[in-house]
Each structure stands twice: as structure tokens, then as C-alpha cells.
Design brief:
Blueprint (H helix, E strand, L loop, with lengths): L2 H12 L4 E4 L1 H8 L6 E5 L3 H8 L5 E3 L7 E6 L2 E7 L4 E2 L6 E2 L6 H6 L9 E3 L5 E2 L4 H7 L1 E2 L5 H7 L2 H13 L2 E2 L1 H10 L8 H12 L4 H11 L1 H5 L19 H18 L7 H9 L4 H4 L1 E4 L5 E4 L3 H15 L4 H13 L13 H11 L3 H10 L6 H28 L7 H8 L5 H17 L4 H15 L1
The structure holds adenosine-5'-triphosphate and magnesium ion.
Length: about 475
């Protein structure tokens, strides 16, 4: 029991109220996952909760108070305390009619999944699990406390949350859950974009985003919130390696995550992951069937990176992503193909420099994205591409080093040299400049008076 919970527990017990730790933290503790925010539920009404915690909390927030939720920062720990709910759903407007309840069992019944419908009484550590959440968790099975049709009809966001938990926890939806999502997927359109964005990002940042995405696509949820993804299923990829670009995309995402996770202490990189997911969404719109050399059928996707970057911007804007994230992700999509013009290293130095400047602070991510974008089963071809990219990275490193050297200037410039030595412009000034540059390379930067002295004694030797 986290210390913040124990402190809240005695406070509520002292006032004659029940307090339960519920949902996410109970589930995560049972799974051995790190617990972040603490969610509580209580019979105390929101105003009473606010009054009770005011002495203990360093801050409180009441943005959710009309739904019964009071937020409080307790001993550095964010806590949300929600009054027992016993909602009914208005089937016309489909908004929940907020009704407060009096007991834990009916509160748990209105929660999204059985593994989120477990609670622990803080005062006596009594474990409450009326819907078999622990058994489902042990089997990795996502089930709803009541019928999934009813549950998803009441609140369609739960369908997207299902995909999020699949991606985050690696659980599998029970067959009736998947079935109900298929039936009701279209209802997701009723949910505000802000809430959709939060769940989609949690899905993408999860440990198994592929599984969550496959559920979205298989059930039709993706048609509502991310239609560019199912659209990839119709376009064969140009290397004939995959039956469609969709399979290729999921593999690229997996590979990008693998590269991301190789760095010590790596956190999920949403920009890289979204870029991997969206990098080829320009393909369906740019697919052309032509005759290749020798009359063989060929499929091309000219400028799909340009179209893809545009579609990326439009989709992420519709999902109300922050502007800088949209720009970063779209830029990576736009740049993902440029490396294919590198051939076997034919780029000039200036082309290499342009690659680096165009990527700017995204260069590390671009390296990961481009390296992930090979899904050929031909081992020789894959090895050749990887080696060629190694070569590009080496050239970038070499240029950087060279340019750092090129940027080194002597401690005194030509004008100063002429003034100090009383010389007109001419070859001797050039020689002096060269001497000072050598000195600078040899000894690093010198204080001004020392540089002047060195210049004078060099000049004396020239006479
Ligand atoms: P995390 O906080 O790690 O994202 P969580 O399970 O705590 O996961 P929250 O969004 O914080 O998710 O919700 C807290 C709890 O509230 C859930 O565990 C669940 O019991 C309940 N809940 C949240 N959203 C819904 C919903 N749309 N329908 C029903 N119950 C919900
Ligand atoms: Mg939570």
C-alpha cells in the first residue's frame, strides 16, 4: 500500500467513510508493473472529499468534480478520488447521467474491464473482485463486467481502451468483446477527438502496439480514427516482398521499436513510432501500374513521401496533436525515402550535408526510421542496405569532424596581423596567418598578448 494511500485511508476512516484503491493501480500492482497515479473510490461526496483532503494535499484540482472526481497531490503523489458511481445512460444523447452510489459493488460494475474492476479497501486491505478480474488477469483475458454490447453502447471509448490495454499489457480480448467491437465500431465516432488522441497515444507507446493496431484494423475501429492504416492493405509493395504495405508497415514499426529500445534507459518515442506507422500512407494514392524494363509488370509509388507527409499532417491535425509533434512526424515521413538516392555512396558532400541539415534535430530518429524500413527477406540485399547506411553515417561523422577542423581560426585575423606587424597586404601576411593557424592547432587557443608575442618573434626570425 503506497504511503499516500495509507495516509488518506486513516483520514477517511476517521471521518467514517470507506476508501478503496481501485482500477489501474490495483491491476498494475498485481501485474508487477510500476504504479504511477493512484485512483481511489469512496462513498464520501465530492464536497466532503475536497474538505477532507484539504489539510493533507499540497494541491487539489476539481476539473472533474461534476463527474465526482477530486484530484489531490499527496506527498508528491498524484491521486484521484472519485465518489462511487451508479450511472445510468441516457440512450438518446448517450451521455452518462451522473448518479452517485453507495456501495463498491455497483461502482465496479460500471467500469470498463474486469481487470480494472478490482479494488482494495485501504483501511483493512480487503480485496474486492466481484467480476473475476484477477482470474482474467492471470489468463491475460480482457472481459467486461456486464455484457460488452451494453458496455460499449454506453460508452464507445471503451472499445478503443480495449485496444490500448491489448497494446499496453499484452492481454487478449475475449471473443464476445471482439465481436461486440465489430458490431459497434462505428459508434466510436461519437467520442471527442481529445479522448481518442489520449488512448491512441497510450496504444502507440505500449509494449505491443502491433497487437493493438491489428485489433483496431480487424474490428473496423481504425476506419473511424485512423483510416489511412486499413487503406494500406490494398497496395502491394514495390519490392514484391509483402502481400501488402500494411504488413510491411507493421514490421517497420516493430523494427523501429527494436532500435529505439537498444539505447540504454530508452523510453517509448512517440514521434519515431508514429513516423514508422505513417511513413507509407502516401502509397495507396500514388500507386501506378507500369511496364518495367523488358516489359515486366511494375508498380510504382512516385512521390509517395510527399503525399504521405501531407496526409500525415492532415490526420494528426484532425486528432489535435500538438503542432511541433505534427511537424516532426511529417518531416520524418517526408525524408524517409531520400536515402534511396544515395545509391552505393554516390552523394556529394553537399548532398550529405543537406541530408543532415534537413533532418536537423530529427537525424537520430531518421537513422532509425530508414534502417527499419528494410523488410526484405533477401539477406544479402538487407545486409547491403545496412552497410550502405553505415557508410552514410560514417560520412556524416567524417564531414562533421572535418568541418569542426575547418572552423578553426588562428587567434589573430589578417587585419590584426597587418596592424601588429605594420605590413601591407601580401604573401607575408598569408605566411604569418598560416603560422598562427599551426600554432592554434598545436596549442589550442592562446591569450591575446601571448599570440601577439608569438607573432612578433616569428616575424623577427623572418628578417
Ligand atoms: P492508466 O492510468 O495506467 O492509463 P487506468 O486503468 O488507471 O490506466 P484510467 O483512465 O486512469 O485508466 O482510469 C481509471 C479507472 O477508471 C480504470 O481502471 C477503470 O476502472 C475506470 N475507467 C476509466 N475510463 C473508463 C471508461 N471509459 N468506462 C468505464 N470505466 C472507466
Ligand atoms: Mg489511472
Amino acid at each position: 500500500m503506497p504511503p499516500a494511500a495509507t495516509r488518506l485511508g486513516s483520514l477517511f476512516a476517521g471521518a467514517g467513510h470507506q476508501l478503496y484503491l481501485v482500477g489501474g493501480p490495483v491491476r498494475d500492482a498485481l501485474m508487477g508493473r510500476p504504479v504511477s497515479d493512484l485512483d481511489f473510490t469512496t462513498d464520501a461526496r465530492p464536497e466532503q472529499v475536497l474538505e477532507l483532503v484539504s489539510g493533507l494535499a499540497s494541491a487539489t484540482w476539481t476539473t472533474g468534480i461534476e463527474f465526482g472526481t477530486v484530484g489531490a497531490q499527496i506527498g508528491g503523489q498524484p491521486c484521484e478520488i472519485t465518489t462511487f458511481r451508479a450511472d445510468s445512460y441516457d440512450r438518446v444523447s448517450r451521455n452518462p447521467v451522473v448518479e452517485f452510489g453507495t456501495d463498491i459493488a455497483s461502482d465496479l460494475r460500471r467500469r470498463d474491464f474486469t481487470m480494472n474492476a478490482m479494488a482494495v479497501s485501504v483501511a483493512d486491505r480487503h480485496f474486492v473482485d466481484p467480476y473475476g478480474g484477477l482470474a482474467d488477469l492471470a489468463r491475460g483475458l480482457l472481459r467486461t463486467p456486464a455484457s460488452p454490447q451494453e458496455s460499449f453502447g454506453d460508452d464507445p471509448l471503451r472499445m478503443l481502451r480495449a485496444a490500448r490495454f491489448v497494446a499496453q499489457l499484452g492481454v487478449t480480448p475475449a471473443e464476445p468483446v471482439t465481436e461486440a467491437i465489430r458490431q459497434l465500431a462505428g459508434e466510436l465516432g461519437r467520442i471527442t477527438v481529445e479522448r481518442v488522441q489520449v488512448e491512441l497515444n497510450k496504444l502507440i507507446a505500449g509494449a505491443y502496439p502491433r497487437r493493438g493496431l491489428e485489433l483496431l484494423v480487424d474490428t473496423g475501429l481504425a476506419d473511424v480514427v485512423l483510416p489511412e492504416l486499413p487503406a494500406l492493405r490494398m497496395a502491394a509493395d514495390e519490392h514484391g516482398q509483402h502481400k501488402d504495405v500494411y504488413a510491411h508497415t507493421l514490421q517497420v514499426l516493430d523494427q523501429a521499436i527494436e532500435l529505439e529500445q537498444r539505447e540504454p534507459g530508452a523510453e517509448p518515442d512517440l514521434v519515431l513510432r508514429w513516423a514508422a506507422l505513417l511513413h507509407d500512407i502516401g502509397k495507396p494514392d500514388t500507386r501506378r501500374f507500369t511496364q518495367g524494363p523488358g516489359g515486366a509488370d511494375q508498380v510504382t509509388f512516385h512521390h509517395h513521401e510527399v503525399v504521405g507527409a501531407r496526409l500525415t499532417r492532415a490526420r494528426l491535425k484532425a486528432l489535435k496533436f500538438p503542432k511541433d509533434q505534427i511537424e516532426d512526424i511529417a518531416r520524418l515521413v517526408f525524408l524517409h525515402l531520400r536515402f534511396y538516392g544515395y545509391g552505393r555512396g554516390e552523394w556529394t558532400d553537399s548532398a550529405v550535408r543537406r541530408y543532415v541539415t534537413d533532418a536537423g534535430p530529427l537525424l537520430d530518429r531518421l537513422h532509425k526510421l530508414v534502417r527499419s524500413d528494410t523488410t526484405t527477406r533477401n539477406k544479402r540485399k538487407a545486409a547491403l542496405l545496412a552497410a550502405t547506411y553505415d557508410d552514410l553515417e560514417e560520412r556524416i561523422a567524417r564531414l562533421r569532424q572535418q568541418e569542426e577542423l575547418d572552423a578553426i581560426r588562428p587567434d589573430l585575423d589578417g587585419n590584426e596581423i597587418m596592424t601588429i606587424l605594420g605590413l601591407p597586404p601580401g604573401p607575408l601576411v598569408g605566411k604569418a596567418y598560416k603560422y598562427l593557424l599551426e600554432l592554434r592547432m598545436e596549442r589550442g587557443p592562446l591569450p591575446h598578448d601571448e599570440a601577439v608575442r608569438a607573432l612578433r618573434s616569428w616575424y623577427a626570425e623572418q628578417q
